[in-house]
Design brief:
Structural class: alpha+beta
Number of helices: 11
Strand content: 15-25%
Oligomer: single chain
Radius of gyration: 23 Å
Number of strands: 21
Largest sheet: 6 strands, mixed
Helix content: 25-40%
C-alpha cells in the first residue's frame, strides 16, 4: 500500500523496545520468525496478554503477534518477559526479524522439506550482523518449503526449496532468480540484504526505499551480491560458479494465489500429512487471539502434536503431527473455544484493521461491522450450486475492512476493500465501480441505518463472489450432478 510522507520520513514500525502510541494505549509487536512458538513460550505470551495488555494477542499479516492497550510501564515488563522467553534475542535487531515460513514445513502438498533449520539460520545470521540492524522494519523475508504457499506474500527476499539439495533465491521485482546449493542459501540471502542497504546509501530516489521493490534501480546488484556470497560460502573459485540464474516466469515461481483460493495450510480444518498424521489449521477471527485460546492451543500441541503452535501470515494458527485419534477431539475443543476450523465458515477471508476505539484515526468500529457481516454470511448461495450447499464458500474474494483510507493490515493480492471515510463506507474491488454507502442522517460517522446496513452486506457479498469457469457442457467447474 502507499506510504505517507510522514511514515517515509521515519520508520515507525513498532517493536517491544519501541512501541506505538494508540488511542487505547501503547502497542507492542513481537517478531516470531517462521511463526513458531513452543508450548511454554505460547503460555508466556498468553500470561503477558492477561497481565499487561487487553487480554488478546493480535496476529499480523507477517506471522508476528502484537499486544495493545499497554499502560505506562507495561512495555518494560513485556520486554523483560519476552527476553526471558527467548523472543528478544537481539535488542538492536528486534524489528528486522520479519521472517515468514511455510506453516506445514514440508509435511504436505508440494512441500519438499522441513524449512525450520533455514528459518533458524536466517534469524541467527540477521542478528549476528551489526550492519543489518539498519534494515527497515518493513522488510519481509520468506522461507518457502517448495509448495509455493508463500508466493502471494510481498516478500522482499525469499528462499524456496527445490529438489536435489538446492534452493531458489528470489528478489522482489526481479524477473530472474538465483538457484543455489542449500548450504549457501542463507549467506547469499544475507548478502542480498546488505546489498539493499548499499543501494539505499547511494542516495537519490533509492534512499527513500523502505522495500526492495521500491528501489528505482539496483535490484540486479542484490542478485550479484547473493551470487558472490554463494560462491564464497561454497569455497569455490570465481570460475566454479555454484549458482545458476533462471527466469522466474519460465520456472513458474512468480504466481500468486488467485481470487477465492488460498494455500492449503491456510484453509481452516484438517490437512493430511505425508507421514499419515494430520495438521489442523484454526482461523482466528479478525486475528484477535484470546489468552485462553492460546493456552488451549499450547496444551493440544504439547499433548498430541509436535509441541509447536505455528502462527501463519493468514491470521490463523496451525498444529502439526496430530494422529487421527487426537484430531477430532482437538478440532471440537478449538471450535468450542471460538476458533474457526470449518472452511465453509463466514469468517474465511474476512480481515480488518483495529478501527474504533483503539485507533484515533479510525472513523468506524470496523471490527464490529466485519463481525456482523461475517455472521450474516457475507456470501449468498449462487444458483446452480447443488442443493444450495457449501460449495460456493471457496469461491469468494477476501474482504478487508478499514477504518480510514490508510488501509492498515490489508492483505496482499486481490481484495474487496470496505473503507470508512467522512461520508460513509466505500467499497472497492471485485466487479463494478466503487460504491458508497452513507452514514445515517443525524448520527456521527461510523453508524449506518438498518436499510443501509443491508445494502452494504449485499454489496460486499456480490463483490466477493467469484464466478466459476464453466465446462463445455455448461456446468460450473467443480460442481457435480
Amino acid at each position: 500500500m502507499p506510504t505517507s510522507p510522514r511514515e517515509r520520513a521515519h520508520d515507525a514500525c513498532p517493536g517491544v523496545l519501541r512501541t506505538h502510541p494508540a488511542a487505547d494505549g501503547a502497542l507492542a509487536r513481537l517478531r516470531i520468525p517462521g511463526g513458531s512458538l513452543g508450548g511454554g513460550t505460547a503460555r508466556t505470551l498468553a500470561a503477558c496478554a492477561r497481565d499487561v495488555s487487553d487480554g488478546c494477542l493480535e496476529l499480523t499479516s507477517r506471522g508476528n503477534v502484537q499486544l495493545r492497550g499497554l499502560a505506562d510501564g507495561a512495555a518494560a515488563v513485556l520486554a523483560a518477559r519476552a527476553a526471558a522467553a527467548g523472543l528478544l534475542p537481539s535488542a538492536t535487531h528486534e524489528r528486522v526479524r520479519n521472517i515468514v515460513g511455510s506453516p506445514l514445513s514440508g509435511r504436505a502438498g508440494g512441500g519438499l522439506r522441513d524449512i525450520a533449520p533455514l528459518v533458524d539460520a536466517l534469524d541467527a545470521g540477521l542478528c549476528a550482523d551489526p550492519e543489518l540492524a539498519a534494515l527497515p522494519g518493513r522488510m519481509l523475508f520468506a522461507v518457502d518449503d517448495g509448495s509455493g504457499d508463500l508466493a502471494a506474500l510481498p516478500a522482499d527476499l525469499a528462499l524456496r526449496a527445490l529438489p536435489a539439495g538446492e534452493t531458489l533465491l528470489l528478489v522482489a521485482g526481479e524477473p530472474v532468480a538465483l538457484r543455489v546449493p542449500d548450504d549457501t542459501a542463507v549467506p547469499a540471502l544475507l548478502a542480498a540484504a546488505r546489498a539493499f542497504l548499499d543501494v539505499r546509501a547511494t542516495g537519490g530516489a533509492a534512499a527513500a526505499a523502505w522495500r526492495v521493490a521500491e528501489l528505482p534501480i539496483g535490484r540486479d546488484h542484490l542478485l550479484d551480491a547473493a551470487a558472490a556470497a554463494s560462491r564464497s560460502a561454497a569455497g569455490t573459485t570465481r570460475d566454479g560458479v555454484p549458482s545458476t540464474r533462471i527466469a522466474v516466469a519460465s520456472a513458474g515461481f512468480e504466481g500468486a494465489a488467485g481470487a477465492g483460493t488460498a494455500p492449503v495450510g491456510a484453509w481452516p480444518g484438517a490437512h493430511a500429512q505425508r507421514d499419515g498424521r494430520w495438521a489442523l489449521t484454526a482461523l482466528v477471527p479478525l486475528g484477535r487471539l484470546h489468552a485462553d485460546q492460546l493456552d488451549l492451543l499450547a496444551a493440544v500441541a504439547e499433548g498430541g502434536g509436535d509441541g509447536q503452535v505455528i502462527v501463519t501470515p493468514w491470521r490463523s494458527v496451525v498444529l502439526r503431527d496430530l494422529n487421527l485419534a487426537v484430531l477430532a477431539g482437538a478440532s471440537d475443543r478449538l471450535a468450542a473455544a471460538g476458533l474457526v476450523v470449518d472452511r465453509e465458515s463466514g469468517w474465511v477471508g474476512v480481515t480488518s484493521c483495529a478501527g474504533r476505539p483503539g485507533c484515533a484515526k479510525a472513523l468506524a468500529d470496523v471490527r464490529r461491522d466485519a463481525s456482523r457481516s461475517a455472521g450474516a454470511g457475507s456470501a449468498p448461495v449462487r444458483s446452480g450450486t447443488p442443493g444450495g450447499g457449501p460449495q460456493h464458500r471457496r469461491d469468494r474474494r477476501p474482504v478487508h475492512w478499514s477504518g480510514c483510507t490508510r488501509r492498515c493490515g490489508q492483505p496482499a493480492g486481490e481484495v474487496v476493500e470496505v473503507v470508512a471515510d467522512a461520508a460513509g463506507y466505500r467499497i472497492h474491488g471485485g466487479s463494478g465501480a466503487a460504491l458508497a454507502v452513507p452514514w445515517s442522517d443525524g448520527d456521527e460517522p461510523g453508524e449506518l441505518s438498518a436499510a443501509d446496513w443491508d445494502v452494504l452486506v449485499d454489496a460486499v457479498a456480490a463483490r466477493r463472489s467469484v464466478a466459476r469457469p464453466r465446462c463445455r457442457d455448461g456446468r460450473e467447474a467443480g460442481s457435480w450432478r
